[in-house]
Amino acid sequence: MSSNKRWQLSRRAVLRGLGTAMALPLLDSMTAGKATAAAAKAPIRSVFIYTPNGYIMPSWTPTKTGANFDLPPTLQALESLKSDVLVLSGLALDGGRAHGDGAGDHARSAAPFLTGAHPRKTAGADIKNGISVDQVAAREIGKNTKFASLELGIERGQNAGNCDSGYSCAYSSNVSWRGEATPVAKETNPRLVFERLFVDSAQNRAARERAKLAQYKSSILDIVHKDANALKNKLGQTDKRKLDEYLDGVRSIEKRIQDTEKNNKKVFRPSMKKPAGVPKSRQDHIRLMSDLIVLAFQADVTRICTFMYGNAGSNRSYRSIGVPDGHHQLSHHRSNKEKIAKIAKIDKFNIEQYAYLLKKLKSVKEGDSNMLDNSMVLLGSGLSDGNRHSHHDLPIVIGGKGGGSLKSGRHIRYPRETPLCNLYVSMLDRMGAFVEKFGDSKARLPQLS
Fold first, then answer.
1. Which one-letter DSSP state was computed for residue 205?
2. Which of 85-89, 236-240, 245-249 has the highest mean pLDDT?
């Protein structure tokens, strides 16, 4: 290689070790020699976060619109991120309504949340919903990454049985749908997510290597140590720093997973069906998954993720924040002030975890901007008022600037009954997955840029 040419690293380069292929973050040396700055532009990532049981909307909805909007109590955790978010009011999910099917609004808040479809009421195998917005995007841009999409959650679910008034558990447990009858199961175990991201799972890996890898007690970074050091010798100072920061993040997450597993081994497990209860720390679980999302985006192994903070109709309690009652039961508050106050605590908890993810994304520098600027992170629910099972005026917030295509730092109020799917069509445009129509969309959502 002549001295006047910059050494260039393949964007698909990985660190290899025993049965392991660890993706690398975007480095300057991967874009060396590119003809234009556009070629080195960071990709747009999208996260769709579902939260169950609706919100206390008076504590969610800003009273002012535009850039000078106020942050009500529920959204206070976004104070330092106010210029990075769009709060959207007036959007509706018509597919969540009964349309003659009777009860089951909780299942109908999750199943259509990302599809806009009206799910067939059945507890049998003849489920029917619709393809979700994340999977529409995955079909188009997922070919650019190792994984077309990543589906995460906090509560395990099932795809059979009756979970809500005659609706299949598949509707309550999933927001990502590859097709009308094909939900994409989420992963709730951080260890398995970590291994999926960084352990080479090729079918042709030798059984001997599998056994050795399973027995390896040191960090995954020790496995790729030799390859990492060899690469560092070829990198400039900026890329070395980026690589070190990335590897430090991997090590930190790995240690937290190991510590969690070590603590779990100390817990007595009787030989009976696991009772419904609260994990040691729901916050730690959500934040660990959030860190894995950031890591996956850094490594560019995926650009699309769905994340369920809870299954539809979740009745988990939140003892760590002083709410021992079940969330679903509380949502039927019947205007009881004490119950409303407890739900408001849960609502604030959700937004605090959301703010954590946004801050982590913002901390990752990408050229002159950061990863949050190059992302669209939607959080919302398929219900607004959980007591009345309302599917209009939904709680929707988007973090990030979508690569400069979103004008953040505003509260926008749309006319009542504006389809939520209008937003999804607009997001698909920005992801490079253009469609004429999606779900019950009627037009692109205006005022976003």
1. -
2. 85-89
* Distance of alpha carbon 343 from the chain centroid: 22
Q: What is the pTM of this model?
A: 0.84
Kind plus residue range of the DSSP H or E element containing 344? helix 337-362
Which of the four pLDDT bands, split at 50, 70 and 90, describes residue 255? Answer: confident
Cα Dmax for the chain: 76
Domain spans, the chain: 45-193+306-431
> Do residues 304 and 141 make contact, with C-beta atoms less than 8 angstroms apart?
yes
Place of tokens 């299954």: 311
Extract the tokens encoding 208: 């001997």
pLDDT digits (tens, 9 = 90+) for 298-320: 989 999 999 999 999 999 999 99
Residue 268, SS3 per DSSP: coil
DSSP strand E in 108-193: where? 150-153, 162-164, 167-168, 177-179, 182-183
Amino acid identity at 362: K
Cα dihedral value 101, 105, 109, 112, nearest 10: 0
Q: Strands 365-366 and 14-17, how do they pair?
A: unpaired
Measure the CA–CA gap between 36 and 105, rounded to whole angstroms: 50
- The CATH fold of domain 45-193+306-431: Alkaline Phosphatase, subunit A (3.40.720)
Interacting residues of 331 by C-beta distance below 8 A, sequence separation 6+: 53, 54, 343, 386, 387
What digits encode the pLDDT tens for the residues 153-200?
A: 999 988 889 999 999 999 999 999 999 999 999 999 888 888 888 776
Q: Which of 21-35, 265-279, 291-305, 331-345 has the lowest mean pLDDT?
A: 265-279
Q: Could you please report the per-residue DSSP string of 20-34?
A: EEEE----GGGSTT-
Instruction: Say which amino acid occupies 23.
Output: A
Give the list of residues 6+ apart from residue 270 with CB closer than 8 angstroms, or none.
none
Q: 358, 84 in Cβ contact below 8 A?
A: yes
